[in-house]
Automatic annotation (TrEMBL), chains A, B, C, D:
<protein>
    <recommendedName>
        <fullName>Prephenate dehydratase</fullName>
        <ecNumber>4.2.1.51</ecNumber>
    </recommendedName>
</protein>
<dbReference type="Pfam" id="PF01842">
    <property type="entry name" value="ACT"/>
</dbReference>
<feature type="site" description="Essential for prephenate dehydratase activity">
    <location>
        <position position="202"/>
    </location>
</feature>
<dbReference type="InterPro" id="IPR002912">
    <property type="entry name" value="ACT_dom"/>
</dbReference>
<keyword id="KW-0028">Amino-acid biosynthesis</keyword>
<feature type="domain" description="Prephenate dehydratase">
    <location>
        <begin position="30"/>
        <end position="209"/>
    </location>
</feature>
<dbReference type="GO" id="GO:0005737">
    <property type="term" value="C:cytoplasm"/>
</dbReference>
<dbReference type="GO" id="GO:0009094">
    <property type="term" value="P:L-phenylalanine biosynthetic process"/>
</dbReference>
<dbReference type="Pfam" id="PF00800">
    <property type="entry name" value="PDT"/>
</dbReference>
<feature type="compositionally biased region" description="Basic and acidic residues">
    <location>
        <begin position="14"/>
        <end position="23"/>
    </location>
</feature>
<dbReference type="InterPro" id="IPR008242">
    <property type="entry name" value="Chor_mutase/pphenate_deHydtase"/>
</dbReference>
<keyword id="KW-0057">Aromatic amino acid biosynthesis</keyword>
<dbReference type="GO" id="GO:0004664">
    <property type="term" value="F:prephenate dehydratase activity"/>
</dbReference>
<dbReference type="InterPro" id="IPR045865">
    <property type="entry name" value="ACT-like_dom_sf"/>
</dbReference>
<dbReference type="InterPro" id="IPR001086">
    <property type="entry name" value="Preph_deHydtase"/>
</dbReference>
<feature type="region of interest" description="Disordered">
    <location>
        <begin position="1"/>
        <end position="23"/>
    </location>
</feature>
<feature type="domain" description="ACT">
    <location>
        <begin position="224"/>
        <end position="302"/>
    </location>
</feature>
Length: 335, 335, 335, 335
């Protein structure tokens, strides 16, 4: 399968396909990912059992991947959501905030590791210019400063494209790439583990459409995007209290500019628990009442499988008992 | 029915009945109040339209009044609940906290005003010893210091009893009493308006049994008694947040010792609004989940008729809309 | 000095003096307490080492006791402050809130225990009317209901006066009194331990004048009275946050009506720690800025001797380090 | 001056200079900015009065700009901090969080506006591949979709580089650039105002070294970066309370991964007011005590000149009065 045909340095709109033959009725079986083969995103998709043996559609950016889902070209798209290498948190978060009817149905972690590759025969001392995606480039800052202090940087649109371009006329001498790149391209590794942080990991989410929600597992998270009602002091405090008064812990809270003017933000939130948990559902109710715009992005199993820990006074029985109690207070005599 | 059989043999607060004749089947029409005739409590009961023309049962203390309601001897009891003259907040609050199945169904305000009365012929300069209920005595402190600096105080069990005892062999020369006392007893007023605070008012509540709740009027309050879950720092903060996160204002919060050991308290709370208001019902749910012991004392019209003011983002429609939204999130496709 | 001249002509709570002889220059050595001999307050004063062998001045009520201190007649006064038998929390709290320049310098606990006493020869079955201070009477409710269901109640101004009056012409047959009463009066005990709560205890404070503060012991509390800035929703939350954001736990918070109109309260607060603790001092600063009226009542050793437990991130060093840091931020270059 | 010499597509380490001649002793007069000429960053630097007529050093990225300041090569560096076009918030925020001894001394706003440029003679219909910095490319998404739906994207390292490369052998047909680009390069404008948001603006800060703080103007902001003490629920709430309990409003709060592991964040905060404001200084003290790592980035005049509005109960006098009060509480008698 000619992977390199998927990797035109100039024509990102040209997407490639894993499976050579497919027909429109297969769309429910297509998975979109940031390609081409060898990307970290592909490694994340490889963790999805139901995607095994299905058609994997390689696309050029997050917008295209989510566009496939919205248009029905794919059943789901794998996108990087945090500490991203392939395009970053902000783009994905903003896309999820503005494209309607998307749902996160799974979370996956991929260790991030880089190698420096070059055309066969190149020596490290020959390297003057390096092809690299800007984010990957930034993550190898320390190694480059120590080993190639005088190098130049030629930005690339993806990690794989950076490497592939070496065989396609690029003036660069070397490229920063994922370790698996040499399985796909005739390149040699000049240095391994050149990333600054040996524990780096990228978090991916599998995004689908519709209202189906994966069943609760006890180790779930719920993703939400919410705007603050106004910029009065303390409104973020009020938002956070919607969770804390229900004993719901947040594993992520990020602000993103809404974009219409400086100083207006929406918040991207990952909460521990599942929408079918009473405390999470009640927090969602509180959030909906509080926020002028709230998007439920889904409840899904955590990639790390860590069980959600919460105070026993927020367990489901407490919520149902309270509802029964309230109902009893206003029941007519004799009931 | 021998009402007087309920009276202690030496009863400074000699109780009586307004209506001379009644039968057991009339019990649903009996109202208990702290007597005897002339008390501020009687003045509060006189504000209740449905009590007009019914049997008013004079009792000696709050416990007896509520006991009448519990035992079915009365349909309701009028008791002082705040800034009380006739026995005080604490006794009433503790009784409501410990006697089950009571409901406050109305609130009434009575201006508090005192006169100094004496047997006919007594002059102010003759007064050496004053009969007075301790609370009333305390409220006339400034006038007494200025006008009778050398007097002695003989405590009495009620304001009316203080005055009545003057005609019953008391060694006192004068008594502090409510203004209406001279309608009931052959006494003369030596001084009027002797209370320290001309705006003093006592708040009374009418207490009934069962689960019927007065219809919302838009000017309602809801009374609750709740214990804190434990004495960890901040648990009172958590309790208050149950209201503030729903936009519910509190007009009263008082702590009362639970009584089993020092340092353990329950809180008596008056919240603006009616249990049929979504925001109040939701705060009650939150409170029930939070507190190991919460008593709903009722929702009823405010005595001052002041409309409840609250932020429009806590109006009923916001709550019902949020519930619909949450329901839609988890609805199967096609619904 | 004619102490008896201070007594009202009809004084059920006949006050007296422990020491037969004293002169005005002894005033700094006089301690006032709610008398007469045999009261729980006297038992509290007996716990004060520095009061040993000094003149103890018996007075009739809290106001008189604090008046002695203000006027310089006493060096200190012992008053009941919580769960009180001898006159109650509210009176003491309100006095501390309104009389300036008072300081609490010590805290003492006295177990509360009652006996039923009568003139020699009286049998329990003879008892028809009982003399009792209303608060003591309320605390023996269960025993009385079970053993003397048909009794009448004659209120008294103090526990000791209730007993003493049996020998002074009272029509009552028995009295509720502290256990030590038979050391002072020719009475017999009809029943012991008649209080409803075997663990009942009254908390007393020793009140002095001036600005001297007992040295910190590590097991201290700090008493404050503060008004809320207005009745906007959440202002009590804001007050509590002054403590919680400095890691200061509260062992007591009580609301007391300010008295000028319904719905306005001041809060009586006991905080763990000493004003010389950085976190307590900082909370006091925050409280002073927040509250339109705040009264510092003192820092003093806790009666229970329990060491104050607090998060290590609020220890003194953290405060001084932060001040140094802030100072460094704005220091001119070179310093 | 040969601007294009500053713009090697491959050698970003080669920086350019505005002033043809300078010597080491001029370093205090050098200002670094993300070049080359024509960038939005240069437009921001043009707003700085004290930079007029000084040497402007063009650099390739934020790290290089701040490196100049740290190394003493420049007196200050202008960097984009929010809603950035030239490289983004995250890079700048992370650099400020990790490079010690930097101070923000000014804030500047530059409207963001884009044109599509091409080599002379090119028509819009000829455009197949577009050179663009990824952020600028993302901001013109709507216009490109509508007018050039089939284009390809070639990423560039800066907006100016994108345009300059058209004259330097780039295979692209057009470039997205700032409007002033045609003053520096022989290019033609194919379309104006192609940005999606006509009100887009980028916020820049001028970063210097040392401890000098611009004098307060009444329209200031204070920038801080702080880590949370741990990931217990509610610790972000606690952080926010450090500001809200002192009446300090936040205009920005952003989380940034600390980078050592997923789920650990630091928060970038802009607070209204100046460190010389008592309420801001006190909030900084609280923050320092709370946070295991807090960086004060400076107090400086706001770009929009908007006066800081705050509740009068947080004015300086209230803080100084409270300190005097506290001091008086513990003063020895006679002082």
């Amino acid at each position: 399968m000619p992977e390199t045909a998927d990797q035109p340095p100039i024509a990102p709109d040209h997407a490639g396909d894993h499976a050579p033959a497919h027909t429109p009725q297969d769309h429910a079986e297509v998975y979109s990912f940031l390609g081409p083969s060898g990307t970290f995103t592909e490694a994340a998709l490889a963790q999805v059992p139901q995607a095994k043996g299905k058609h994997w559609r390689s696309v050029n950016n997050v917008g295209e991947a989510l566009g496939d889902v919205v248009a029905g070209r794919s059943v789901a798209a794998m996108i990087a959501i945090e500490n991203s290498i392939e395009g970053g948190v902000s783009v994905a978060q903003d896309a999820l905030a503005t494209i309607p009817d998307l749902r996160i149905v799974g979370e996956y972690l991929v260790p991030v590791n880089f190698v420096l590759v070059a055309r066969p025969g190149t020596r490290l001392s020959d390297v003057k210019v390096i092809n690299a995606h800007p984010v990957a480039y930034a993550q190898c800052h320390l190694w480059l400063d120590a080993n190639l202090p005088a190098h130049g940087h030629l930005p690339s649109s993806s990690n794989v494209a950076a490497a592939a371009s070496l065989l396609d006329g690029s003036p660069a001498d070397a490229a920063i790439a994922p370790p698996g790149i040499i399985d796909h391209h005739d390149l040699e590794v000049l240095a391994e583990n050149i990333g600054d942080n040996p524990n780096a990991v990228t978090r991916f989410v599998l995004v689908s459409r519709g209202t189906a929600i994966p069943a609760p597992t006890g180790a779930d998270k719920t993703s939400i995007i919410a705007e603050l009602p106004d910029d009065r002091p303390g409104s973020l405090l009020d938002l956070l209290e919607q969770f804390s008064t229900r004993g719901v812990n947040l594993s992520l809270i990020e602000s993103r500019p809404i974009g219409d003017s400086l100083g207006r933000y929406r918040f991207v939130i990952d909460a521990d628990g599942h929408i079918s948990d009473e405390r999470v559902a009640d927090a969602l109710l509180g959030l909906r009442r509080f926020s002028p715009a709230v998007i439920f992005l889904g409840s899904y199993p955590r990639a790390d499988g860590r069980h959600v820990d919460y105070d026993h006074r927020y367990r489901d029985e407490v919520f149902t008992e309270a509802r029964e109690w309230l109902k009893g207070l206003t029941a007519p005599p004799g009931e």
